[in-house]
Design goal:
The protein is α+β, with helices and mostly antiparallel strands. Among the domains are: 198 residues, Roll (Pnp Oxidase, Chain A), CATH 2.30.110; 113 residues, UbiD C-terminal domain-like (3-Layer(aba) Sandwich). Helices cover 27% and strands 24% of the residues. The protein has twelve helices and 24 strands. Helix 4 runs parallel beside helix 9 and helix 7 packs across helix 8. The longest helix has 20 residues. The N and C termini lie far apart (59 Å).
Length: 489
């Protein structure tokens, strides 16, 4: 059964006139999901080896609005597991504390473009917003539910946790879609990311990251200081933190502050029991440990990649687990990697909406951007632009490849602002009508995803840009550009 922690009264805020709830407890969020009829309970005993994937995949295929799947008996253990938790528009929006994904983008836009009040009357009018900003910083508390049960040292045994082995092509069990917390030793900035973590034995994991990842770069900083790197992995708790772990925000951006801004109240943090960093107080399970940066890396993988292949292989860093703390009745959520449906689809939509305002801040002529599921939500990007001068589409493509979030995209398609980039047929119709391959194709060499098996050298590849905008005279197009067939009023 889903554990009940009791409802916690938190201040709510309004989103487009709708009163939004906050979810400190994963069980509270799941209770609302079940009230909407979007939860499938599996009471029969299942195994953590392939069964979770098989059943989740079937649920995603058989329903356009795939339910969250709650497994109450995994490997005969006491910890329930939920998959596809964020696999619908309602669920992803309510995890973000917004009524719609557009609302999430609007809130980020407001954060990037704050209006300064004019005079004391303006200050009074802005008072509610200024009060809201004081609530977004995380709050350190003395204790939290995540430490109701504590296992230290030799009492730690990761094999007692229902960590899934998702696919037969993978080399073992792994944690996927869970936030990893660490701190930059040079700046003190908190970093929260989502990285594949493969179980090595009862008290260690191997982290699969690469030089593109900020976690990898932070590990390098600890190495230069000859210090061990403390790490915490957080399972369950506020689903908003799991969403933001996927957001490739700038390294100096504290995602606990962004979480507080989106939900309208601060995130409670508590000091970890065995390492010197803070962790979410309302998490269900926290795995604490450290990386000995002086130790040699170890082989990791193969593991499932977002492309739908067993593509994540290479060298990883070993995390020695020093403590596992839990609620007295924990519940954990995992994403099934490589499904390209359900939660991964909506997570990609959420990331696009959250980061689109940031893209427009750097490249103002961009009116919309979309990464389709056909490109694993990362390989392709469709971008609509307000075009004013010759070769502006090329300028935009090169600018986008200069942003970390899009630097490894192997194809960017630029269209005019009146094309709906979320409609793939409309995008490719624009390519068919407006793109002349000999003149409107841009090739560039640069970084690629390390798990992209199509590249000849891991991490190094080529990118292609297609200019499917209407052409101007200054672009060498002397022919008259035709008008679209549209009826007048």
């Amino acid at each position: 059964m889903v554990p009940s922690y009791g409802r916690v009264k938190r201040d709510s805020r309004e989103s487009n006139g709708v009163r939004m709830k906050h979810y400190d407890h994963l069980a509270d969020f799941i209770a609302d999901v079940e009230d909407r009829g979007e939860l499938l309970r599996i009471t029969d005993a299942v195994g953590s080896r392939f069964d979770l994937t098989r059943i989740t995949q079937r649920a995603c295929r058989e329903s356009p609005n795939a339910p969250a799947v709650l497994f109450e008996n995994v490997d005969g253990g006491p910890i329930p597991v939920i998959t596809n938790l964020l696999g619908s528009e309602w669920r992803i929006c309510h995890s973000l504390g917004v009524e719609s994904l557009q609302d999430a983008g609007d809130r980020i836009s407001a954060l990037l473009k704050p209006e300064l009040p004019a005079g004391w009357q303006g200050v009074l009018k802005q008072a509610p917003q200024l009060v809201e900003l004081t609530k977004v910083a995380p709050k350190t508390v003395k204790s939290g539910p995540c430490q109701q049960v504590v296992h230290l040292g030799r009492d730690v045994d990761l094999r007692k946790l229902p960590i899934p082995h998702f696919w037969p092509q993978e080399s073992g069990a792994s944690l996927r879609g869970v936030p990893l917390f660490c701190v930059d030793p040079n700046t003190g900035d908190r970093h929260i990311g989502n990285y594949p973590l493969q179980v090595r034995d009862a008290r260690s994991l191997v982290i699969a990251w690469n030089p593109h990842d900020w976690g990898w770069r932070i590990a390098q900083a600890y190495g230069r200081r000859n210090e061990q790197m403390p790490i915490a992995i957080c399972l369950g708790g506020d689903p908003l933190l799991s969403v933001l772990a996927d957001v490739p925000a700038p390294p100096q951006a504290d995602k606990t502050v962004l979480a507080g801004y989106l939900r309208g109240s601060n995130v409670d943090l508590v000091k970890a029991r065995s390492i010197g960093i803070e962790v979410p107080a309302h998490a269900d399970i926290v795995i604490e440990g450290f990386i000995d940066v002086a130790a040699a890396s170890e082989a990791v993988g193969p593991l499932a990649s977002p492309s739908g292949f067993a593509g994540i292989t290479g060298e990883g860093r070993v995390m020695q687990v020093s403590a596992v703390t839990t609620r007295s009745n924990p519940l954990v959520a995992f994403n099934v990697p490589g499904l390209r449906s359900g939660a991964d689809e909506w997570l990609g939509e959420a990331v696009d909406h959250v980061l689109s305002p940031l893209v427009r801040w750097f490249v103002p002529e961009v009116s919309a951007i979309h990464r389709p599921s056909s490109g694993s939500r990362r390989q392709f990007a469709y971008v609509a632009i307000e075009k004013h001068f010759p070769l502006q589409a090329r300028k935009v493509m090169n600018a986008l490849w200069g942003i970390d979030w899009l630097s490894c995209s192997k194809m960017i398609v630029a269209v005019d602002a009146d094309v709906n980039v979320r409609d793939e047929q409309a995008v490719w119709s624009a390519v068919a009508s407006h793109c002349h391959p000999g003149a409107d194709t841009l090739f560039s060499e640069g970084p690629a995803f390390f798990d992209d098996h199509a590249t000849r050298v891991p991490g190094v590849g080529h990118r292609m840009g297609l200019d499917a905008t209407r052409k101007l005279r200054g672009e060498g197009h002397d022919r008259v550009w035709p008008e679209s067939l549209v009826l007048d009023a």
